[in-house]
Amino acid sequence: MNMQNQILQVESLTKTYGKGQNKTEALKGITFDVWEGEFLGIMGASGSGKTTLLNCIATMLKPTSGKIILRGQDISGFHGRKLADYRGNEIGYLFQEFELLDNLTARENIALPLCLHGVTAGKAKADIETLADLLDIADVLDKFPSQMSGGQKQRVAAARALISDPDIVLADEPTGALDSKNSKTLMNKLSAINGEQNKTIMMVTHDANAASYCSRILFIQDGCIFHELRRNRQTESIEAFYDRIVVVMAQLGGGSANVL
User: Fold this and answer.
1) What is the mean pLDDT of residues 62-87?
2) Region at 72 (left for phi over 0; alpha for psi -120 to 50; beta for the rest)
3) Domain CATH number, residue 192
4) pTM of the entire predicted model
5) Does 72 reside within a domain?
């Protein structure tokens, strides 16, 4: 991780829904930075605002106030072509439920972000095959989603999020629809890509096992940052970091069973 380069700055971010007595503050002035090459986890109880935060960064939601700055540019000022380029090239998004198109093969699903920006699957062939090897999905490239397991679908979705070489990958509960074996496989792959390619990943998760692969975790409670944990990958094992995560989750209220 390159601690010299800030890739993302979130400054005093708020998001409010409704008005008057129906007003709900999902985010209450959250501020933090993300560093290039970091694997950042976001955790918190249901309704804490963590997915709202991720969706504001993805421009799926518009913040009420505050700034989101990616590589020195305030994304709130993006419109039209610039906004499309941001969504298509500067961020990748990994969904919980895969969101693959059933009538496209894995290869075509992976290439879709590029095709939307005028790059053909043929031109992207080498990049697709490189990612397929990294994620162990080379054998399903010409299969349709209905012919794949859940784990294969999510790794195809991960390849799609990575294919445009985005500045940052946003992952929303990426292990939420997977069993423990496939969850571990996916997290090992994402961790390797983060470490070997210095790819910045920001992941919302309720799963302490998935979170233990991160280099830092922000815990959100009631729209505010409640706590932060950092892991030194050279000296602290995944198992030891997991134990520290579980302690903080319990402090958030209700233990792991109620942390979403």
Assistant:
1) 88
2) left
3) 3.40.50.300
4) 0.90
5) yes
